[in-house]
Amino acid sequence: MTEKKGKPKLSILTISLGMGGTERFISLLLPKLIKDFEVTLVILYNYIHFEIPKEVNLIILKPNAKSATSYYLKIKNFANIFIKYNRITRSNNIDVSFSLLPIPNIINSFIAIKNKRIRTIISERCYSSLMYKNSRIQMFLAKLLFPMFYNRNHILFSNSIYINEDLKQNFGVKIPSKVIFNPVGTDENQKIDLDKINGTNTLNIINAGTIYHAKNQKLILDAMSLSNSGEFKLTLLGDGVLIDNIRQQSKNLSLFKYLVLEGKVNDVKHYLLKNDCFILSSNTEGFPNVLLEALSVGLPSISTNCFSGPLEMLNDNEPVTIKEGDFFKAKYGLLVNVNDAVGLNKAMLYFKNHPEERQRYSKLGFERAKTFSMTNIYEQVKTLLNS
User: Fold this and answer.
1) Between 20 and 30 A from 122 (CA), which of 101, 108, 221, 368?
2) Domain with 210 in it: what CATH number?
3) Quick one: what percent of the chain has pLDDT higher than 90?
């Protein structure tokens, strides 16, 4: 009689389960993963925004500590975190250790060195060359540590072909790599009402994300200032180090009455459905979940053509040339150059003055989002974990 084999034992290592694209990705996977794996979720810090299924074994390595804000502090804590995580993988007889983001990935690399039995999989979620370009120490550490440790693992996956290529060309990562996009759900009963998309005196636009340099929400206010007062109203979801700068900029540009700061919210879709247009203003991205969420409710969208994600989502990754001060009508939304206020203003006016185009892009965006269904994405993740 053959002994029945139980589910493979999977551990997931990441920084936290707070608000963010990586954290949302994990939260969407967990309800599926528990059906096929015994799941242990290990987070460094006690920031939990998303619901965790009761079947998941949750372990918080530093429950009373604040998240380190720099590479230096994270590296300083590294030894202690690695020792704890190594014990967890051994005591729980983990078969597959899956990590996301640089510090967890380096810890997982040490697991690969110490325990050859465990299959280690790492995931990068940002375009490293742009993310670290403004910090010499971060760039130095990435250039030093990524090739030294990432190559110890079995496989790497990210949510963009550009991320993988950047890691290969600029950071010496040579292990096999795959692309698995982030998932999103679509609901025919939760999308923009096409009958209500019509001409309007004020176009209600929305942006969501941490308010800091990389997200460049300042660009939207700059673009608004190029039109008459009242043509646009901006709602910002999220918080961050530049929130006071945004507030002051809106006052300097006489746009404060057209700016709504909602702070952190739990139901982003609720706010997306109340607006006319979504704008992603980022200088750099890994894979912008919020742009995908906007598409998933049929909200007409404008995005900077930053690395990486927008071109893949809005134009099937087919390259485009955008003239400075102009925009490009992509397959599923409008694209503008990074940090181009004139081009963004033109794109905003185009949507404001052409409600029929907003209707068309609403339909196209919703259909596009269906290709990122949880069913499709999870099967790719499951195959990767089991292979």
Assistant:
1) 368
2) 3.40.50.2000
3) 81
pLDDT at 1 exceeding the cut of 50: no
Residues 133 and 279 reside in one and the same domain: no
What Cα–Cα distance (Å) separates residue 41 from each residue in 29, 44, 139, 194?
12, 10, 29, 41
How does the average pLDDT of the chain come out, rounded? 93
Task: Indicate whether 98 and 223 sit together in one domain.
Answer: no
Q: Please classify residue 304 by burial: count the beta carbons closer than 10 Å to its beta carbon, then call 0-12 exposed, 13-18 middle and 19+ buried.
A: buried
| Residue 282 sits in the same domain as residue 143 | no
**Range of the structural domain that residue 325 is part of:** 194-370
Phi first, then psi: what are they for 26, rounded to 5°? -65, -45
Instruction: Give tens-digit pLDDT for 188-210.
Output: 999 999 988 988 899 999 999 99
Side chain identity, residue 41: L
**Domains held by the chain: number:** 2
Task: Tell me, yes or no, whether 93 lies in a domain.
Answer: yes
Separation of alpha carbons 122 and 154, rounded Å: 8
Instruction: Assess if residue 3 is contained within a domain.
Output: no
Residue 350 pLDDT > 80: yes
Helices (H) and strands (E) in the chain, counts: 15, 14
Pick from 23-32, 76-85, 90-99, 233-242: least confident: 76-85
Is position 114 within any domain? yes
Q: What is the pLDDT of residues 4-13, one digit of tens each?
A: 468 999 999 9
Strand boundaries in the chain, DSSP class E: 9-14, 38-45, 57-62, 96-100, 119-123, 155-158, 177-179, 203-208, 232-237, 259-263, 277-280, 301-304, 327-329, 334-336
Query: Which tokens sit at 23?
Result: 């954290």
> Which is more confidently placed, 134 or 39?
39
- Residue 273 shares a structural domain with residue 240: yes
